[in-house]
Amino acid sequence: MFLEELRDIHNLEPVLYFGIGPHETHRSDNLREFYAHRPLEPIETRFPMIETFREDIDVKSIIEEEWGIKLPRMYAMGFSHANCGGRCVRGGFQHYAQLYNVWPDRYALQEEMEENFRRDFEKNVSILKKDGGPYTLREYRERMDREGVENFLKIPDETVPCVCSFS
């Protein structure tokens, strides 16, 4: 359901809750600003984990052990986030190595999407960046195939985690 439908059809005022922690306050600032500038009416955003806790806590354990809610399977598969079914356009090198290792078919779809975008818009851009320039998913896959994907699974990502949800 789209946010506009909540207002226009159902006469409800949407409030978006984001589960990001105190170490990601910069993301809350970006999200607040983004939704405050919606074309017709701003949308209220709330960040209960930032508003409630001064420091990060083991939220995953609380969710599973105290609340009895099973986490999305992507966490057990080694992903640091369970967004977009692994096809996050803001993912970094480790994320895409994990995607290629676990779901090569999804990696292939993402690689194809990136290539189509580059071709259709005639832009030399890519999801990944290396040495300040584009580094395509095809280039990365070819390197992982040559050197072994297992060598890329623990590379720390320097990219900012995504701000998905409607942005």
Explain what this protein looks like in three dimensions:
By secondary structure, the protein is mostly helical. It folds into two domains: 1-71, no CATH class; 72-167, no CATH class. It is 44% helix and 7% strand. It is built from eight helices and four strands; from the N terminus they run αβαβαααααββα. It has helices spanning 3-8, 25-36, 48-52, 59-66, 73-76, 93-102, 104-121, 137-147, and strands at residues 15-17, 44-46, 128-130, 133-135. The strands form two sheets. The chain has a two-stranded parallel ribbon. It starts with a helix and ends in a 20-residue tail after the last helix. Residues 159-167 have low confidence and may be disordered.
The main β sheet shows up as: 2 strands, parallel
* Rg (CA only): 18 Å
In which range does the helix fraction lie? 40-55%
Which class of secondary structure composition applies to the elements? Answer: mainly alpha
Tally the beta strands.
Answer: 4
Q: Looking across the biggest beta sheet, what order are the strands in?
A: 1-2
Unreliable runs = 159-167
Q: What order do the helices and strands follow? A: HEHEHHHHHEEH
Query: Mean of the pLDDT scores?
Result: 86
Beta-strand content bin = 5-15%
Number of helices: 8
Number of structural domains: 2
